Amino acid sequence: MPYEKVTDAIQYGNQLYNSYPKFFHALIPVATIVTAFAGIINTRHIKKQANLQREIEGNRYKIELFEKRFNVYENYKPSLMTGDIIPNISSEIKRDQFLRTLKVAVEESSKCLLVFQKKDNGVLKELIYKQKKLYKEIDAISYYYKDIAYTEAELSEKLSRIERQKELISSMNEVITALGKTDQLDSNQNSILNSLNVDKSICEHKLKYYRKTISDIIENFPSKYLELCDAYHNANLYMEKNLSLPELAFEDDKSFIMSSWLFTLSILKYLFVTSPKLERYLAWIVLPICSAFIFFLLHYSHA
Questions:
Q1: pLDDT for residue 24 is more than 80
Q2: Quick count: other Cβ atoms within 10 Å of Cβ 41?
Q3: pLDDT in the model for residue 250
Q4: Per the UniProt record, which residue ranges are transmembrane (predicted)?
Q5: Dist. CA 259–CA 254, nearest whole Å
């Protein structure tokens, strides 16, 4: 019984083909156009899906980058120096405390520079440069104090030797004078005394230089600290500006009519603007030929 239905369907199809042969001949180019059009739509759909997947992956990367930037920014904020209170670096305890804070700030700023890698991140580089420069200057104070202690000990030893040398020369001169041999005064001892006096002058100049340098660093610290605070402010504004969530890669829902219209426009744009040149040239050549063929075929079928 199913075989008879298939046979009847085939016979009915043959009758239609024999009755309307031109109509079926006209369907051949129509089917070609529809097939080509369907292929183009399918290609566009595949490319759209690939682009959408690429946008999703790109957004995932942007979100991960945002999370990293946000984390380092949150860790950076406690080290922010506002300039409301200028630290006291005169005492060793306060100075060491400030250096520890500044060291942590340099580490956090370096992390920010790592995740905010952009062409316009000069404010972060300037901040790190000023942090390291100020850290180096303040840290040098401790070394200058050590140099002062060493030089003072050296100066004390030189002064003791000078006193002993003077006493030695005085004793020798008394003995030589008592013997009446003033022509035998030892000039070598005077040379030793002169050398010790030169060493004493060098130590005194060193101490003067060390103390003057420490005084200059402490005196200039407030202005340099405020400059560093300005650099902090600029870097903070820069990072806040670049902390933004990426837009989603999904389109908003639209009405059926709007979607159909946009879809038609996108197909036409793809066919005549954005598609590869080979597909564009093929569409421009095939579509007019098929349309002309259908027109003449229908025209002569009515004639």
A1: no
A2: 13
A3: 46
A4: 23-41, 281-300
A5: 6
Sequence letter at residue 237: L
| Amino acid 249: pLDDT | 44
Question: Model pTM?
Answer: 0.57
Q: What would the two tokens of residue 111 be?
A: 């992390």
Residue 143: name the closest of 62, 231, 210 by CA. Answer: 210
Structure tokens at 303: 């004639």
Contact of 81 with 226, CB cutoff 8 Å: no
Cα separation of 189 and 162, whole Å?
A: 11
Average the pLDDT over each of 163-172, 203-212, 249-258, 269-278 and give the range with the smallest value.
249-258
Collect contacts of 39-45 with beta carbons under 8 A, ≥24 apart: 40/267, 40/270, 40/271, 40/275, 40/279, 40/283, 41/267, 43/279, 44/266, 44/267, 44/270
Would you say residue 183 has pLDDT above 70? no
The mean per-residue pLDDT over the stretch 198-212 comes to 92
